[in-house]
């Protein structure tokens, strides 16, 4: 064989090999290796079982939650009903209590009348009633006493505060009654003894003929309470313009009456103050105006929201200043000699 023939054979073989390689390669790409048939189905089956289990657990949980919720709702409804029943019972008890209280009051009044018929001691005020064991706060009728020159008089007695025995001479709490009244009104008194009232200067003068304590209780619109007490309180008669004398302050409201000490009583039609101004007209009440006020307990009643807008309200400067009208006030007196 010649060298040229050998080279031909080599080229031929090489071309054959190349052709075969080219023909086989695309066939390999079309058939990727498959996983064994049995393993695939087992995994799917196991997943399906797990999903089914989870679904049934979820359903059970949701059923349980629904039952729980229904139970809770039922319990709440039960509690609500019990609450309403209890409230009804309390209301009933309260109404029974108030009925009994009314009866007690009536019995007390009847007793009081029989006491005054048999006793030589006069029923002078709430302190004398307290000493005779009338210990329930409320309205009492002080009988007429010719020896003392006192007419029959309805009074409200505070038999609880600090030992009781207090006769109320003033109250502000409802706010419908005007206190901007004339001399005659303040002289004889006005208002309702269970609501807002001024007992009357002549009555107060009579009740303070012996050494007397004055206690003033106040409440603001935030529900806080304060008091001011004067262990010496006295009022001159009408000829002396019901001049005020107070001394020996104690309490937690501050002393806003001292400024009014030794001043005369003024009303809308009697300017007895110590000022060029007409204080009763400016402050719209009857009071012992100086020039003009450090307190104005007979001023205008202003409701919450309006209570900080004027200077003619029910004020006590030492507690809330000149622009705060109080929600509630009670002025009460009892003899200095009273022992609860
Ligand atoms: Ca004046």
TrEMBL record:
Coiled coil ranges: 44-110
Annotated SUPFAM superfamilies: Fibrinogen C-terminal domain-like (SSF56496)
UniProt keyword list: Coiled coil, Disulfide bond, Glycoprotein, Secreted, Signal
Occurrences of domain Fibrinogen C-terminal (ranges): 117-337
Subcellular location, record wording: Secreted
UniProt main location, coarse: secreted
Record's signal peptide: 1-23
A biological-process GO annotation: blood coagulation
CDD domains reported in the protein's UniProt record: FReD
Glycoprotein in keyword set: yes
Pfam families the UniProt entry points to: Fibrinogen_C
Stored PROSITE patterns: FIBRINOGEN_C_2 (PS51406)
GO cellular component, one term: extracellular region
Keyword Membrane recorded: no
PANTHER family the UniProt entry points to: FIBRINOGEN ALPHA CHAIN
Protein name: Fibrinogen C-terminal domain-containing protein
